[in-house]
Amino acid sequence: MNKTEQSIKENIQKAKVGNQIAFSLLLDTFWNEVYAFQLARTKNENDAEDITIRTFSKAFDKIGSYDEAYEFKTWLITISKNLHVDLIRKRKRSLLDEMESSGDEVKKVLDETPSVEDQLITEQNLANLLRDIKKLKPPYQKVINLRYFNELSYAEIARELNEPVNNIKVKLLRAKKLLAEIIQKH
Questions:
Q1: Measured at the alpha carbon of residue 21, what is the angle toward residues 54 and 65, in degrees to the nearest 5?
Q2: Which of 165, 180, 183, 182 is nearest to 53 (CA)?
Q3: Which NCBIfam families does this one have (predicted)?
Q4: CA 166 to CA 129: how far, in whole Å?
Q5: Could you tell me which CATH number the domain at 116-185 has?
């Protein structure tokens, strides 16, 4: 076993016990291979990037189930392939639903100006959302605020936090998952 393989195995063990630096090193090591695999499959940079981000998020959530009898890269590619298949199924289902609902129904034009009640509900929802965001760990709060309240791009957030763009993408995805769990508890 060469030094790189040994290092990967050590990082996997550290990641299994929640070491964030090990997660980042694994992400940096395998990002290009997973992204290239998806780009070849999807022929679309946005889809490839989205699926790659979700691949690493899912892999890190399920790293405890990783069987070391298999190559880590193979495990990641399998997750990535399954996510792509799920995306295709979802799009087909969505397209079929859209075709069924666009029959001979008359489309009604609605007044989209928010009522006073709508504005009050929006303000209450924003207050609740801000309260829930404050329950996240500070690094997750910061990345959510920079992305959704300051409307910074991934690259701008990466410069602001002095981290690689790939880490920002995964951190943001993880922050959104944790925030969704907090919101569901209410």
A1: 55
A2: 165
A3: sigma70-ECF
A4: 26
A5: 1.10.10.10
Which residue, chain included where needed, has tokens 């991934």? 154
pLDDT in tens, 73-127: 999 999 999 999 888 888 888 777 776 665 544 444 444 566 666 676 777 777 7
* Dihedral pair phi/psi, residue 79, rounded to 5°: -60, -45
CA distance 179 to 186: 11
Q: Would you state the structure tokens that stand for residue 136, as one six-digit string?
A: 């996240």
Place of tokens 């399920």: 62
And the tokens for 73? 């890269």
Length of the chain in residues, anyone?
186
Q: Please tell me whether the overall predicted TM-score, pTM, comes out greater than 0.85 for this model.
A: no
| Distant-in-sequence, close-in-space partners of 125: CB < 8 Å, separation ≥ 6 | none
Amino acid at 43: K
Check whether domain 3-101 has CATH 1.10.1740.10, yes or no: yes
